[in-house]
Design goal:
Layout (H helix, E strand, L loop, with lengths): L2 H12 L22 E3 L26 H5 L1 E4 L2 E4 L4 E2 L4 E7 L3 E9 L20 E7 L6 E7 L5 E7 L28 E6 L3 E9 L11 E11 L4 E4 L15 E6 L8 E15 L6 E19 L2 E7 L28 H4 L20 E11 L2 E10 L12 E11 L3 E12 L2 E14 L3 E13 L7 E13 L3 E10 L15 E13 L6 E15 H5 L6 E12 L3 E13 L8 E6 L2 E4 L5 E12 L6 E14 L4 E14 L5 E14 L5 E17 L2 E14 L12 E3 L2 E2 L3 E17 L2 E13 L9 H6 L3 E13 L2 E2 L1
Parallel strand pairs: 1-2
Antiparallel strand pairs: 2-5, 3-4, 3-13, 5-6, 6-11, 7-8, 7-12, 8-9, 10-11, 12-13, 12-14, 15-16, 15-42, 15-43, 16-17, 17-18, 18-19, 19-20, 20-21, 21-22, 22-23, 23-24, 24-25, 25-26, 26-27, 27-28, 28-29, 29-32, 30-31, 30-38, 32-33, 33-34, 34-35, 35-36, 36-37, 37-40, 38-39, 40-41, 41-42
């Protein structure tokens, strides 16, 4: 069938309304009892699913074929969040069997409250829906797993989970975390169908073995668990009884045992792609608008399953253009670099093999590879990831040479949850280079304690024929993840000369020590409030050289946070922050004070600034049609623009509306402002409203519109509160600035499976030329009155996944 016919058929299907399905099998009464039943609450968490044929099997979410009558039945779910160790409020049944080429799951989720939440959404966009998550630890190492999720309509989410225990402590803007979250950027090819029923919903899932990696052992034993998320109550239920007082959620999984003669076959995925693009921009000196029609770009990727547990990837001339602009982020601390997640498919496959405590492997550094290859896999207790890439000259420091990247990580599992690993990265460009070698380890003991450490050394030459610098990075973490008492003590150090051109360091040249504790009190069941947590945190930061020579900390912070969770999914917290910041001469080395024409003074700053802030956050339940969250911070803080005391306001509001099962709209608003304490004048203000609207025409087909407005107003900088004279930066005055822009993106996307896609898109940028651009006028922005076009782009992209 042609792609055009598939598109046409998808649109026709989109017109059918969603209604609950009913059949004699809905209640389960017409079915024969399965051969074996395994209750999680009874400790029966090691089923042996039967091996059956796929003859006459239909993937239709109606579990009425004979195979389901012989499947292993998993029942007896327990609540994990917000309270562990008690029976689940809603009943769930999971049926499991496998064939020679795939493993099959059937789910019956009973919902007596008649409050199932489900939308027709894009892949990985089901976190406001009820859902089932399957955790497949195919190597049974208790450290990593593939996560496959579906909502009641069979819409998929998927990713990889590598436990680090970093999501379990507090922090403003979040409730009490319960477990590590998966990285949803990787995609896996599997099939799923779902339907609403009179008892709740029913889901059918088929996972081909060629989509997974696993050992060559026969028979196979996999780590396995099922998590059910219920939105109307805010509950998470787990089939394998899991306690929150543990260093690992995955280690508490059950197993799928005695699976024999799994046939993965030849695993060869070839994905050719073609991209055509037309860009527009105004001609120089006010000439006519001009368009540049670029020649269609042809490239492709290859994925070869060398063995069951080793995969090789290659790509030639790929198109990694984003189909949506990255959302702008407000830098609360300008000394901290902004991190953008990797979303490019080639780099995402096997990303779990490159996971390091510090992000020493950050593939976004590779701008546009001409050619790249990757090998990932596991043999016994050894994990290996290797990546090599030749980047385009656009990623070159000189603009003429092709940078070469090589990244490798080897990890050995120790015991049940511990491990030791080595990471090597290298970036070469002519005679310039950056090489980093790192060793790290993690040890779990006493079931709720873990300790980890890392040491890295960087060797860098930044200029042709220049000197080579060598510098270290190191860190250590001790954590306790108790049900009521949790703590995380960290010391992290980065030398001022440490460089990583293959990784990401948010802020270099400092040493930070953190003591983060959390005590949680669980209230009696049945009330509105479910838990109250007290989370004191103390943090000190030194310049690295000052720490080595036992100098004073430049930053000292004490945060006291109280957080509550309430029935139905409500959460809120309040944090009181007492801080003191010392002047960092290195940060303001480019600053001078202008005393007169050609007469300047050194900028010495205020030796130390004291802060007192209050932060509030709240998150609503994920109701059927809407959910919202807010974070609001205000108080006396440092004005980084001029290094002076200021009154600060930082706000982030987020609303997601789902008026229908197909329509989803997200609105986010960020604001940051600094007001001088000396005279109440504004130093700077940033406002960023962003709206994203998606309409799902059919399961593989959607339309998306994104609009973002950003305004930045900054006053002329001065030596506030000291000499009050103007400031120079790099020898130049810093006059008042007012600028604003609007960016719009439109996309039609058809993606039936990962790898096969068709994109038709348009994007445009506008400059706000009004007299007061900081005064955002929503109707005016929609009509683009007072906005001058700056650039635009039309593009078409198509790729096809050929799977052998």
């Amino acid at each position: 069938m042609s792609s055009l016919a598939l598109l046409f058929g998808a649109v026709i299907v989109a017109s059918a309304p969603f209604t609950p399905s009913h059949s004699p099998a809905d209640s389960g009464a017409a079915r024969r009892a399965p051969v074996e039943t395994f209750s999680g609450r009874s400790g029966q968490i090691s089923p042996r699913p039967p091996r059956l044929d796929e003859i006459n099997l239909r993937l239709d979410a109606v579990l009425d074929e004979p195979q389901w009558d012989k499947a292993a039945l998993l029942t007896g779910f327990s609540q994990f969040f917000p309270r562990d160790g008690i029976p689940a409020e809603d009943s769930t049944q999971v049926l499991v069997w496998y064939s020679a080429t795939a493993i099959h799951f059937g789910v019956r989720a009973f919902e007596p409250h008649a409050a199932v939440q489900a939308t027709l959404a894009n892949r990985d966009r089901i976190f406001s829906d009820d859902r089932i998550e399957l955790l497949l630890g195919t190597f049974r190492d208790g450290r990593q797993a593939v996560v496959l999720g579906v909502n009641p309509l069979g819409i998929q989410m998927d990713g990889t989970l590598v436990e680090s225990n970093q999501a379990r402590m507090g922090g403003s803007g979040s409730g009490t975390s319960s477990r590590d979250f998966p990285d949803l950027n990787p995609d896996f090819v599997f099939e799923s169908k779902g339907r609403l029923t009179e008892f709740g919903y029913e889901v059918e899932i088929r996972v081909p073995f060629k989509s997974l990696k696993y050992s060559s052992a026969n028979p196979q034993t996999w780590g396995f668990n099922v998590v059910r998320v219920v939105q109307h109550s805010g509950r998470e239920d787990s089939w394998a009884p899991a306690t929150r007082a543990t260093a690992s959620f995955l280690a508490q999984s059950g197993t799928l045992e005695a699976m024999t003669d799994l046939r993965r076959g030849i695993v060869l995925d070839v994905t050719p792609e073609v991209t055509a693009r037309v860009t527009g921009a105004p001609a120089p000196l006010g000439g006519r608008w001009g368009y540049d029609s670029q020649r269609a770009k042809v490239g492709g990727t290859l994925r070869w399953g060398v063995t069951n547990n080793w995969t090789m990837n290659g790509t030639v001339n790929p198109d990694f253009s984003q189909i949506e602009s990255d959302a702008s982020q407000v830098q609360f601390d300008p000394r901290q670099a902004v991190f953008y997640a990797e979303k490019r498919p080639f780099f995402l496959d096997g990303t779990e093999y490159f996971s390091t405590p510090k992000s020493l492997v950050y593939t976004k550094r590779i701008v546009q590879p001409v050619v790249a290859t990757k090998l990932t896999g596991k043999r016994g207790r050894m994990n290996l990831g290797f990546l090599a890439a030749v980047d385009d000259t656009s990623g070159s420091l000189s603009g003429r040479e092709n940078p070469f990247y090589a990244m490798a990580r080897v990890q050995r599992d120790l015991g049940r949850n511990s491990r030791v690993a080595m990471t090597l990265t290298d970036r070469e460009e002519g005679s310039r280079f950056n090489r980093v070698a790192s060793v790290d380890a993690r040890h779990v003991f006493g079931s709720i304690y873990s300790a980890s450490a890392q040491y890295a050394q960087a060797s860098t030459r930044l200029t042709d024929g220049g000197t080579v610098s060598n510098a270290p990075l190191w860190n250590a973490v001790l954590s306790r993840n108790g049900r009521k008492l949790a703590m995380r003590w960290v010391i992290d150090a980065v030398d001022e000369r440490f460089r990583t051109q293959s990784g990401f360091i948010g802020r270099g040249g400092i040493t930070t020590a953190v003591m983060d504790q959390r005590y949680t009190h669980y209230l009696a069941p049945g009330g509105f409030l479910e838990s109250i947590s007290f989370n004191p945190l103390y943090m000190s930061t030194w310049r690295f050289s000052s720490f080595v020579h036992q100098g004073d900390a430049i930053e000292k912070k004490l945060h006291n946070r109280v957080a509550v969770t309430a029935r139905g999914g409500w959460s809120a917290d309040v944090t009181h922050m007492t801080e003191t910041f010392g002047f960092d001469p290195a940060l303001y080395a480019r600053y001078r004070v202008l005393r007169g024409q050609g007469d300047t003074l050194a900028f010495v700053g205020t030796p130390r600034i004291g802060n007192r802030d209050i932060a509030l956050s709240m998150n609503t339940p994920r109701w059927k049609h809407v959910s919202a969250g807010a974070y609001y911070l205000w108080g006396d803080d440092e004005n980084f623009y001029e290094w002076a005391p200021a009154r600060i306001l930082f706000a982030n509001f987020h609303v997601e509306a789902r008026p229908t099962e197909r329509l989803r709209a997200e609105l986010q608003y960020q604001r940051q402002s600094f007001v001088r304490e000396t005279d109440g004048s504004s130093v700077g203000e940033i406002r960023i409203p962003r709206m994203r609207v998606e309409y799902q025409l059919a399961r593989p087909l959607f339309v998306r519109l994104v609009g973002e407005y950003a305004s930045n107003v900054q006053d002329a900088l001065r030596d506030d509160g000291r000499t009050n004279l103007p400031l120079l930066i790099n020898g130049r005055p810093s006059p008042a600035q007012r600028d604003a822009s609007f960016r719009g993106d439109a996309l039609l996307s058809y993606r039936p499976v990962p790898g096969t896609l068709f994109f038709l898109g348009y994007g445009a940028g506008f400059a706000d030329t009004r007299e007061r651009p900081e005064q955002f006028n929503f109707p005016g922005a929609l009509g683009l009155r007072g906005f001058t076009p700056q650039n635009n782009v039309f593009y078409v992209k198509a790729s096809y996944l050929y799977r052998q």
